[in-house]
Design brief:
One of its GO terms (molecular function) is ATP binding. The chain is an alpha/beta fold. The protein contains eleven helices and 14 strands. It is elongated, with a radius of gyration of 23 Å. The structure holds adenosine-5'-triphosphate (ATP) and magnesium ion (MG). Adenosine-5'-triphosphate (ATP) binds at residues 32, 37, 55, 57-63, 102, 211, 332, 335.
Length: 341
């Protein structure tokens, strides 16, 4: 999949108003009834970067993107895209932003080619050009073989690629990606990551949402962590991870009654607190260096604590959250069931 021949207009945005910020948001608020889904968010996304908005279900990620894309009214606060006020200039903003939805917005009964052609026409592209853009995009996203199949026969990964392709028709300098890889298998996920990196190499700015720390880690230059509509942290992925150590040692004790002993041992060996999981007998130990795991395991054996399973892993979003907010990722339950296609 190559996107090198596909250049966004001008190889990058020409900032209006002399700003090098692609997105500038201050005090953004969206209220649904009594519920402040977005509760005073500030964001600065620099031109040419991949900026990640990381948060659990119901944090307000999609709502934020939808306001910035003019798909939802901004209740309070101000948002600018390349210096252009979003609320006052929806038509200009729609030229500047390509939106890829969390739920692919393609027509099931049409083929991939027909969908791209239709989207092009709807966006005012002339007939012959609409046909050539569609062919170009199908090639760029590796969808040539499936070009004339109806979308109903597409896999989740193919749908995501088509959805992303559709958002690039007008070659916008800023792309919003809402959970671009949720529900994709690891290989397809990796391909999507490469595609996103390619967009940025070509001069685009990308604002993406994700629930996965590893995705933010792989892709984003900077990340804002949001929770209950508020920004709780911002920084590079490395800065966020430092809040919880480089890696974690995940332990399951044979006897949950030995947890207090294990906690003592960890304190003694590392001088830090393990994170107790709600699951009985399970604890996660933040580690500055992965090889400290051995020290903890040896000390646990000397203390007579027996262990059923052990692994060393990167910190999860849950752990970052716990470290940043003091509570677990407790997104809205009704939104937990995600469309996995
Ligand atoms: N149109 C709506 N009407 C009422 N409430 C809404 C609406 N859209 C979103 N919400 C609520 O606003 C909150 C934020 O939702 P949002 O979709 O922005 O979360 P999210 O971070 O994108 O979550 P997910 O990871 O599940 O996609 C949730 O509590 C959700 O139920
Ligand atoms: Mg969402």
């Amino acid at each position: 999949m190559s996107i090198t021949e596909f250049r966004p207009s001008g190889g990058g945005p020409a900032p209006a108003g002399g700003t090098d910020l692609a997105v500038r948001v201050r005090g953004l608020v969206k209220t649904f009834g009594e519920h402040r889904a977005v509760d005073g968010i500030d964001l600065d996304v620099r031109s040419g970067e991949i900026f990640g908005v990381l948060g659990p279900n119901g944090a307000g990620k999609t709502t934020t993107l939808r306001m910035l894309a003019t798909l939802l009214k901004i209740d309070e606060g101000r948002a600018e895209i390349f210096g252009v006020d979003v609320a006052g200039n929806p038509h200009v903003i729609r030229q500047l932003v390509g939106v890829t939805g969390q739920y692919a917005s393609v027509d099931e009964n049409l083929t991939a080619r027909e969908n791209l052609w239709l989207f092009s026409r709807l966006q005012g592209v002339a007939g012959p050009r609409a046909r050539s853009i569609s062919t170009e995009l199908l090639g760029q996203f590796g969808l040539e073989d499936a070009a004339d199949k109806p979308i109903s026969q597409f896999s989740g990964g193919m749908r995501r690629r088509l959805d992303l392709a559709a958002s690039l028709i007008t070659r916008p300098p800023l792309i919003f990606l809402d959970e671009p890889t949720t529900g994709l298998d690891p290989r397809t996920r990796g391909q999507m990551w490469d595609t996103i990196r390619g967009l940025v190499a070509d001069g685009c700015t990308v604002l993406l949402t994700t629930q996965y720390l590893d995705e933010a880690d792989q892709l984003a230059d900077r990340v804002a962590v949001i929770d209950h509509g508020r920004k709780v942290a911002e920084g590079t992925p490395d800065e966020l991870k430092t809040a919880v150590g480089d890696s974690t040692l995940q332990l399951l004790l044979a006897d949950p009654g030995e947890v207090p002993t294990a906690v003592e041992v960890v304190r003694r060996v590392l001088g830090s607190e393990p994170v107790l999981s709600p699951e009985k007998g399970r604890l996660n130990v933040p580690l500055d260096q992965a090889d400290l795991a051995a020290d903890v395991l040896i000390a646990l054996r000397s203390a007579g604590v027996s262990i059923t399973s052990v692994s060393v892993d990167k910190p999860s979003l849950d752990e970052v959250f716990l470290a940043l907010t003091g509570h677990e990722t407790d997104g809205d339950d009704e939104k937990r069931t995600k469309e996995n296609r």
